[in-house]
Amino acid sequence: LHTPMYFFLLNLSLLDLGCISTTLPKSMANSLWNTRAISYEGCATQVFFFLFLMSVEYFILSIMAYDRYVAICHPLHYGTLLGSRACVHMTAAAWASGFLYAMLHTANTFSLPLCRGNVLDQFFCEIPQIFKLSCSDFFHREFFILLFSAVVAFGCFTFIVLSYAHIFTIVLRISSEQRRHKAFSTCLPHLVVVSLYVITGMFAYLKPPFISSKSLNLVVAVLYSMVPPTLNPFIYSLRNQELKDAIRKV
């Protein structure tokens, strides 16, 4: 359990738990108490932690792609390239980058004057919904942060794609079918998690405006904010033989 993969999985588990805890408890409490209220400070806090945890998770998933690349393409150098110190440094960089990213977005968003009411058409504080309440030209203020976000997101996505392109190139050269299957099985959970995270996030923020509606926005928000953190533990646990046996019995 002290190998790099499990160290990254520990961080991923903490991030998934944090993502769910940022949005779901408040939503459940409002539902039970038949209210939709949240304070201005509470909304800002929710936005900050949600952005912080989601961005760090994306960075950790990128690091895990590098971990799989080194393990399969350079197995003899695995202990050197991914020693305990290197893992701690990469993870610390991911957490620090996520903190700065969330701080920039939150500070910029909540410095906007809100003059179009105080009702968000969402079950948690989401930045696009907050922008709808602003009467100022938020696009110009957000342009550089959005550009920076797009560069970072596309950079991480490209890094993951290139890592797996090298991995598949090496794996397909393996003559033994059993070894190929073993190599693919070590990558499959991570690929599923990355795909789930990227697809839901892209659909939430890049969907065309003409297909946008209140009900669709709600469904999409649930998909990208709650489904990946909920399914990640199950996806990674499917490699556990005892869990597989238990599922077969059920």
Could you list the spans in which at least 5 consecutive residues all have pLDDT below 50? Answer: none
**Global Rg:** 20 Å
Helix proportion of residues, in percent?
over 70%
The tally of helices reads: 10
CATH topology: Rhopdopsin 7-helix transmembrane proteins
How would a crystallographer describe the biggest sheet?
Answer: none
What is the H-and-E element order?
A: HHHHHHHHHH
End-to-end CA span: 28 Å
Total of domains? 1
Please write the CATH class name. Mainly Alpha
The CATH fourth-level homologous superfamily: Rhodopsin 7-helix transmembrane proteins
SS elements, strand count:
0
Outline: globular
Oligomer: single chain
Structural class: mainly alpha
Averaged pLDDT: 84
Keywords: Cell membrane, G-protein coupled receptor, Membrane, Olfaction, Receptor, Sensory transduction, Transducer, Transmembrane, Transmembrane helix
GO molecular function: G protein-coupled receptor activity; olfactory receptor activity
Membrane topology: Multi-pass membrane protein
Function: Odorant receptor.
Structural overview:
With 250 residues, the protein is mostly helical. The chain has a single domain, classed as Rhopdopsin 7-helix transmembrane proteins. It contains 10 helices and no strands. Helix 1 (4-32) packs antiparallel against helix 9, helix 2 (40-73) runs antiparallel to helix 4 and helix 2 (40-73) packs parallel to helix 6 (138-171). It is globular and about 65 Å long. It starts with a helix and ends with a helix. This is Olfactory receptor. It is a multi-pass membrane protein. Belongs to the G-protein coupled receptor 1 family.
